[in-house]
Amino acid sequence: MAFTQAILKQCWPRWQQHFSPETRLRLGAVPLAVLADCPSDVVGRYLSAAELEQWSGFHLKKRRTEWLGGRLSAKWAAAGLLNKAEMDWHSLVIQSEEDGRPYLAAGVRPVAPFISISHSGHLAAALAANLPCGLDIQQPDAKMHTVKKRFATPEEEDLLTAALPQSFTKTEQLTLLWAAKEAVRKMVRISPLLGLLDIRLLAGHGGRSTPQEPLALTFTASRQQECQTNISVLCFFTDNLAWAMACPMLIKLS
Ligand SMILES: CC(C)(COP(=O)(O)OP(=O)(O)OC[C@H]1O[C@@H](n2cnc3c(N)ncnc32)[C@H](O)[C@@H]1OP(=O)(O)O)[C@@H](O)C(=O)NCCC(=O)NCCS
Q1: How many C-beta atoms surround the C-beta of residue 223 within 10 A?
Q2: 176 and 123, same structural domain?
Q3: Which atom of ligand 1 is closest in space to residue 124's alpha carbon?
Q4: pLDDT in tens, 111-128
Q5: Domain boundary among 66, 98, 130
Q6: DSSP three-state, residue 106
Q7: How many domains would you assign to the chain?
Q8: pTM of the predicted model, to two decimals?
């Protein structure tokens, strides 16, 4: 988890400017290769009995590894947010709602953070925050061009092209937009989940799209119009993965 800890420590002052001042968040991430052949006695140090049973029940190794990576990353991020120097990993239990949304089970004090989990390519990652949050990581994929009509409008593409450095390929641009919208879908608690075209890009604010200088995107969600809230998503590329973190952004209404 040293990677995300270092990123967060170095970048938080800049990231904080894009979220509401009261926002606190932590990231966790773990390379999947480390977990692929982990024996159950090692895994059992971090999972509750019920979690361990669920982990053992996955037949596909890829799914088992990704699920474990997401759980470990989320526990790590939540422990950081709770300022726990020594964490009883067994008591920090992560469960899923019927629709798959992960949450920290009751019993966490003072208050359970919100969590969001994602896995792609070689990594699993999680975000823990004191406000509803969404995380998506995504490997650039040429398939984005084929499905682009399902998630990107020409206006959004123009906004992104203007906001991103010219060195970004079209595939990278589309991957970033996809990840950002997935992060928003995970953040907004609505059933069924928002469609990707229900989420509209309003503005993009500079940045080289690196962890140090992230791109800040502002979205609105069409089924959320009654809410006085836009959604801020910080995006960057690192290690051939697009990262997108969504948190509510409070705006003043005149
Ligand atoms: C949920 C969804 C956005 C995940 O995105 P993805 O890019 O495919 O995959 P990611 O690796 O980024 O994210 C997977 C994680 O998202 C989380 N997730 C799943 N459902 C979620 C939801 N409804 N809200 C928020 N997060 C959710 C889970 O933690 C999952 O990891 P886990 O299963 O290992 O715990 C996507 O799979 C989706 O749209 N699913 C349809 C959900 C749906 O309509 N379900 C109805 C069944 S009742």
Answers
A1: 13
A2: no
A3: 11
A4: 789 999 999 999 999 999
A5: 130
A6: coil
A7: 2
A8: 0.93
